[in-house]
Write a structure and sequence with these properties.
Blueprint (H helix, E strand, L loop, with lengths): L1 H26 L17 H6 L3 H14 L2 H5 L2 H15 L17 H16 L4 H6 L1 H29 L16 H21 L2 H6 L1 H10 L5 E4 L9 H5 L5 E2 L4 E2 L9 H5 L5 E4 L4 H6 L3 H5 L3 H27 L45 H7 L5 H5 L5 E3 L12 E3 L12 H5 L10 H6 E8 L5 H4 L6 H4 L6 E5 L5 E5 L9 H5 L8 E11 L19
Antiparallel strand pairs: 1-4, 2-3, 5-6, 7-10, 8-9
Length: 545
């Protein structure tokens, strides 16, 4: 019995060692955790596949051959989250024999392997859109960054306010500014999907929808170490089947479907006779569980209904995100003569009376290190880790303003902030390398966009008053003040020096349409590094009185 408890206890401990750092890294609004925490994400299978981290991927597949799908119960944060949901649900309902009752169901191989094939083909074709919706890690990331993180911030703000009432200023108020409508909706849908499927059928998401689970199932079918039932001592009490959240144990036939078993070891813990073990010994019962694929595909009327219901659940999430995100996709529009939003509902100034429906939209500004918009779209799965880790909070998840293929992917928004000249955090933490790691020197010469100046909006022109805020906040000297009228000076942009950091746009006092706006480069360019002004050394011989 001690050995059985040890297996489950070790699995739970290992799951917490992975889950807690990853969760804290997403909700860490005070930047308390080191950026190196992102190494926990390098072992996630979908990011490893898209980021060409073949060693991590091969190690995970080999582990599945040896010990089965332990990844799904320990390493995958979405899997651990489902276990927590299942545990909470089990505590909140009437239980028999102290456990939540599950029952064996045949696998829906047609659906899960079709989704796996579609995902793999899309990934190798450079299209990450399928992974964005089905990848368990990315869905967990959107839940953590758009739901859990705001809750932590609001709790912090409430506690800070209570402490300030007692003249204690150890905590400070924080503004929730990185959550967009589309990001919030995506997090809600992902969480409801996890809750619904977990409450209904345990690990149904992992064994039917998740392409990572389906990939690992191909390697875990004949795992060296596996769950085995000893037929001589087994009395077919059904406890193992009723506690199997993967619905992989058939207590009547005394078989275990290792393609769906996630190595939670719950079955070992509840077996009163000690008939279940995690062993390398081959038995006829284990062999019987690995049935031919054609035989597994035969389903009853109930499994057909489950197939259709699960498929409908997945498909229904896509238009829901699209429709809800479309409703408020114009947050913070910077309507200009070349509006950067498609189908914008805002109008131009008096006398125009026409919207931007027929105007060419500006492309999204992608972070330095992404190299190009197309490359970024192909590799980013919208986990929103870069959004939460950005110190200047300049990254925002996109809605439908840049099209469906860019939905939920981060873009640079300079409404309230700008990209720090020497910051490379997003490139360091991106698990898929959609944002390639770059040095501070590379960052200083990477042009993600170019500032465009609209003189008819500038207060120097409209109000005949001095300003120069854009020039003062330009770190590369790309915006210079040149003579205009009398003693007035007006901004002038040198595109050969501009890196598109947004310092000028974020500080521009003109509202609602700013006088200087960054237009994205489809492909990032390299520019000259600004020359340092010579500082003359002056020897002071007296105080000058």
């Amino acid at each position: 019995m001690k050995k059985k408890n040890y297996l489950k206890g070790a699995r739970v401990l290992l799951a917490l060692l992975f889950f807690i750092p990853i969760l804290l890294f997403f909700v860490d609004f005070a930047d308390l955790l080191p950026d190196q925490t992102h190494v926990w994400l390098q072992v996630q299978i979908m990011p490893a596949l898209l980021g060409s981290m073949w060693i991590a991927l091969i190690v995970q597949l080999l582990l599945s051959v040896v010990i089965g799908r332990l990844y799904c119960s320990t390493v995958c944060p979405a899997g651990v989250l489902q276990d927590l949901i299942n545990w909470i649900y089990g505590k909140c309902r009437t239980k028999k024999n102290g456990i939540r009752r599950f029952s064996y169901h045949k696998p829906m191989n047609v659906l899960r392997y079709a989704l796996l094939l579609f995902t793999l083909v899309s990934a190798f074709s450079g299209i990450a859109s399928v992974a964005l919706w089905l990848d368990p890690y990315s869905n967990f990331g959107r839940i953590a960054s758009n739901l859990f993180r705001p809750l932590v911030i609001w709790a912090n703000n409430g506690l800070a306010e209570a402490l300030m009432a007692m003249d204690n200023y150890s905590l400070y108020q924080v503004t929730v500014s990185t959550v967009t409508t589309a990001g919030f909706v995506s997090g809600i849908i992902a969480l409801l999907l996890f809750i619904g499927l977990t409450v209904w059928r345990g690990r149904l998401f992992c064994n039917t929808i998740c392409p990572v689970g389906s990939l690992l199932s191909l390697f875990s079918r004949k795992a060296v170490f596996h769950i085995a039932i000893e037929p001589e001592s087994c009395v077919s009490c059904g406890l193992c089947e009723h506690t199997c959240k993967a619905e992989a144990i058939n207590s009547k036939d005394k078989t275990v479907d290792m393609s769906r078993c996630v190595d939670c070891f719950n079955c070992i813990s509840v077996c009163a006779k000690g008939s279940i073990s995690f062993t390398a010994k081959q038995t006829k019962q284990v062999e019987a569980s690995v049935q031919p694929v054609r035989q597994e595909m035969s389903t009853t009327a109930n499994s057909r209904r489950t197939f259709l219901a699960t498929g409908a659940t997945v498909v229904s999430t896509l238009p829901a995100v699209s429709a809800l995100a479309q409703a408020l996709h114009q947050e913070g529009c910077q309507c200009g003569d070349d509006c950067d939003h498609a189908d914008c509902s805002h109008k131009h100034g008096a006398g125009n009376g026409q919207g931007h429906k027929n105007r060419k939209k500006w492309p999204p500004i992608t972070p330095p290190g992404s190299l190009s918009i197309e490359r970024f779209k192909d590799l980013c799965t919208g986990c929103h880790l870069c959004v939460t880790q950005c110190p200047s909070q300049v990254l925002r998840p996109a809605g439908m303003e840049y099209g469906f293929d860019y939905l939920l992917k981060p873009h640079m928004s300079y409404l309230n902030s700008y990209c720090n000249y020497e910051c490379t955090v997003c490139s360091e933490v991106c698990p898929t390398h959609a944002i390639r790691p770059i040095t501070k020197e590379e960052k200083a010469t990477t042009q993600v966009g170019v500032a465009h100046f609209f003189i008819n909006r500038c207060i120097v022109h409209t109000e005949n008053t001095d300003c120069g805020a854009c020039s003062e906040h330009c770190p590369t000297q790309a915006v210079q003040m040149v003579p205009y009228k009398g003693t007035l000076t007006i901004p002038q942009v040198n595109p050969d020096l501009c890196i598109g950091c947004g310092g000028c746009e974020s500080i521009c006092p003109v509202r609602p349409m700013r006088a200087i706006i960054i237009k994205a480069n489809d492909v990032h360019k390299q520019v000259e590094k600004p020359k340092q002004e010579e500082v003359k050394e002056i020897e002071v011989t007296d105080f000058g009185f």
